[in-house]
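Two folds, back to back.
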Amino acid sequence: MRKVLGIIASLMILLSLLPMNQASASTYTQAEKLVTEAEQWAGALKWEISLEYRKTKYPNDPITYPNMDIYNNTKEPMLAAEKLLPSLSSIKRNELRKRIDNNVKVHYLRAQAYIDAITSGRKILDKTNYYNKLYVNSPISDPTVQAYHDLSSEIRKQAVLLYRVYGQSTRDAILEKYKTPGETARQNTIYTITAKMEFDKLKEMKRNGELLEDQIDVVSALIEKVENQNAKTLLESNLIKLLIGDVNNLHVDFIDVGQGDSIFVRMPNGTTMLVDGGDQSSGMDVVNHLKNEGLEKIDVVVATHPDPEHIGGLIDVLNEFPVGKVIDSGKTDTSDTYLEYKSLIDQKNIPFEVAEEGDLIDLDPTVHVEVLNSGANSSNMNDASVVLMVSHGEVDYLLTGDAGVGVEERLIQEYDLDAEVLKVGDHGSSTSTSQAFLEAVNPYFGILSYGEGNQSGDPQSEVYNRLINYGVDLISTIHGSIEMSDDGDYIYIDQHDTNNPAPEADISLTGVNLDTEVVTLKNNGSEDVNMTDWKLVSVEGNQTYDFPDDFILKAGSSVNVTSGGNAVNNPPTTLKWTDAYIWNNSGDSAQLYNSQGELVSEF
């Protein structure tokens, strides 16, 4: 047996020494050619990741990506050669494998580690730059604190790839360029961020009625260590305000301009911003609202897009007030309204900017105002609307202009849209406010800015119902301008009637079915009627149904009010009173009262 094995081994050795057949020789030639090509490119790639070489070739910025053509020209023949190796004899295979490993792959893998490090480093640098930008403008805002934590997380996540780079000098240079700025930013601001976090904890303790003395000492000690004078002043001011209960509020007014938008924002530090101005007939309404607020100038005017019901009223505003800057979507129009608006900006030499996504409108360090959408994103006028997120402490306002569902879908993918207040897009039209968008924003309050009886039929029933069914508390400007303010935690709301006489409603009871518990009402007039504060009364049962806030009964339409076992809620055609049985089958009558408490119909 031992003799047989010896013979077999000898035969195998002899076979390996025999000349290759023609096919095998051709494969070897092809593989050897590829290896040679890869070796030539690998020699160049070796220098592409050499720090000393890069300092000579790229003196202004040596720590950048290598020449990717050289990298790919090394990679492709190397991989192609490796695919051919299994078909070669062991001697030839080992010969070429050794050349690949020693002359090609070592440089390729080092280049790959270098490229990965640059990619990771850029991610850290992007986070660093974003954090520094926020810190300069609003050092103690919640977005700044979040950006600090995001930067810290990114450094931890990417650092492992930075340390895999071959060569101490190259590795140190990459760390110096990408990791050091982030670490420096964190170290220089750690007391500010920590003081802000401890201050927030102090606010929560005060709200809960806990003892504050020890926590006040913690916050005060941290503030003393803050080097940035702006941040230190803000923290000291906020601490004093918290302790004496005098926290400056952010004010956001949704002005009644009929079928249009106009939003006035006064920052805690007194600076101001006006977003849109309604149509031209509403211009003086906006002016008067601002004058009643004691306004003498406007720091920033934002025109979301050139539709007349958004920029028309700005003509009166620009004529009445000094304006520090105008920002708009960059979209143009041929309408007389737009041309007059643009001409005024030029005549008065008002600084003008086109909004870009990601821009910050810096008016108050405690308020974060960010552009989430602008004209560059769409050729459609509405979808080019400047969309703003205004954030103050724990309270966010999402101002959407007339941006449609397509824009909403993009915003859902790219931003955290959670906001307590949503200015409902496009006056409540079905072109905006999708279910997915509503779920992403998850608002407590929805602001409907529209004109009663408008030709567009806004707010459209599907959007209105979607908001109601989601549990959004709707407030409409048809009842007057809406004035909101917040202290960073709580929202306070007031509404002032514009005293415009409403057309007399013509609604009547057209049927009461005592058996099925269905009462039918019809709007016989030519105007839609908002039935907020209207009441339906069962006379015998002495039961009262209050119509939902901002329920609109369209002109010529009917609605059924249901109760009992078959009660359903399907606005705007059917409303649910209660599962209980209301109507007396032996005989009962229904009465309908308007918002002034006047009996308008009986059946």
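---
second:
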Amino acid sequence: MPCAVIITAIRLEYEAVCRHISNLKEETYKGMVYGRGRFFANGNWWTVGIVETGAGNVNAGLKAERAIAYFQPNVILFVGVAGGIKDVKLGDVVAATKVYGYESGKETDSNFQTRPEVGRSTNDLVERAKAEARKSDWLKRLKSIEKSKQDIVADPKVYVEPIASGEKVIASKESPLYQFIRNSYNDAIAVEMEGRGVLEAAYANQQVSAIVIRGISDLLVGKGEADAAGSQEIAALRASAFAFEVLSKLEPNPVLKIGSITLLTTIVVSIIRLLGVFQPLELLYFDQMVRMQGSQDSDERLVIVEITEENINKYAEEYAKQNKQSNKSGPDATHNKQNNIYQYNPGASLPDQIIEKLLRKLLDKKTTVIGLDIYRPYDNKLKSLADEFKKKGTEIVFICKFPDAENKTSGQNPPPDVSVDERVGLSDFIDDYDGITRRQIIRMGTNSNEYEHKKSKCKPFDYQKTPMESFSFKVTQKYLYATNQRKYEIIQNLDKNSRIYHEKDKNKIELQPLDQNVKGGYHLKEIGGFHILLRYRFAKKGNEKYSVRNIAHKTYSVDDVLNSDSSSDFNKLDLKDKIVLIGTPVESYDNIVPTPFSDEGQNSPVYGLYIQGQMISQLVSAALDQKPLLKAGTLDKEILLIFIFSLIGSILAQLFKESLKTLVIIVSANFFAYYLFCLVMFFQFHTWLSLISPVAGLLLASGSMTILVDMKFILRKNNS
């Protein structure tokens, strides 16, 4: 906020100044008692310091110097009364261009030789005083004066001329001193006792603009009568009215105003950003960029086997017939245990014998990794089957699900007797406030304090220290190891401090976890584990439309696999070095997951099976193909961007304040340029930068400056 110090000599002058300021309070500094208040005009708030110095240039100069040191003002105005020498009448106002120190000189035997010391008001204030003297706007500030007193000295004029200053009170035009001033300083139109000292203090502080403004309270004759009639009060009120009119038209240092608007805007926008207000718009923008990536090829390493609704109905009917023929009833009964490993329990999508047959078919094709993305009851014979497959070069990864205390669900336990650390991955997804999945879990710690988590078996052996790995990460690690590639390295065991990276041919890709600083446009209150941004593949297979469902190179049903023969497409497929995902994309068996591509048509929300495929593909492609992962901008750099764009907005509004249309065009161009910059960062450097908060800084700063300009225009128009 800009600051002005107003110097007065006597109480009457001090009180006249106080009429124009608000929130007046006392402050002390080195034995001095100051008044401090605020003055608002034309869109600017000024801090105003008031000093009463007493009579004399020495006093005025000394106390003005102290006031400058204390208030560090931009402007100093001396406001008070003076005696008129020539050309003026009672109640007129004089703004001094310069102040002669008439007592400076040399006294000889014959005469006094003048060596005048001249204090000059600064040019900016002199020019502003001249401009205001040509107008009558300042008279509107006199409405608080009683009309009876206005009648005493009507129709005041303002002169911008030199005045004289000394230590003597001149009360007669017949005095030798008066004649001396008239002869030696014949352009001075008024005389007073403090202005020279104030301008000396201002001269010693070059950063301060200064001017002396005096109201004519007497004409050096009939001084007592004039004072008794209230001329001093009228003169002080008019001098202060004109002084504040000059002050109101001053433009504070634009650097100070730009800095203030920039800092305030940065603070406001940063607070709004930290409260999460911008997150919905940021995520909409993120989804737009994801959709703009264009189509990509499906992942040739990935094959999906779907347990379709037709498969479920078909094998349920066949199982019912077998039960009836063997005099067994209901799906709770057990098959011939010599031919079947598992029970066909309620809720299972397929009979146990079909699942085993499917797995063995994939084993025969030398599949590298099988991911079983299905929830079903298992008995304790599954471990031996998994061990058998591993010996033959095929890894099987199962899923489990954490309990959800908020939604009061108990989760899903892993198969019994299967090592969770070795063969089970967490199937949970992280969805945002709008239900869309944009992030991928890598590792997540269990909440050992929750009762349901204590009962759940979906946790690693040392769950208090070791986070649970996700299904997609577990499948990826198994695949990399089975194909003789380096696995992702995990440094430090504690989840919040862990680093996960993959290195191939001296190229290093590190997974960047989202956290309280690395968040892009997210508002993340709590970070539940190690998770990264999910970069979807939008792929096309054959004549199908582009979709996130088409992540896998090939997709088969259970019947396609079990009924394949030498001429079938599945039989021709080489599954060596392939990942096969088995899942049930049926509403009652799998989650329906909205994505950034979701709409009402082809890209409606998809089943979790395909999302797992997207996540596995992202990790494997990053490790083996060096396909870049999405990174998120950091909060500290985002706040820096908010500051930069707030500064740009403030500067632009200052530069183009006379043309709103031009300002709108330039600000729009800056917005568009930053929008393109964010796109370049996303597509070329794979980094998601926040768009909304820096743009909010740009708009708020430029808008605030524009409102101030408009307010000044309106106020000036109302005052005219």
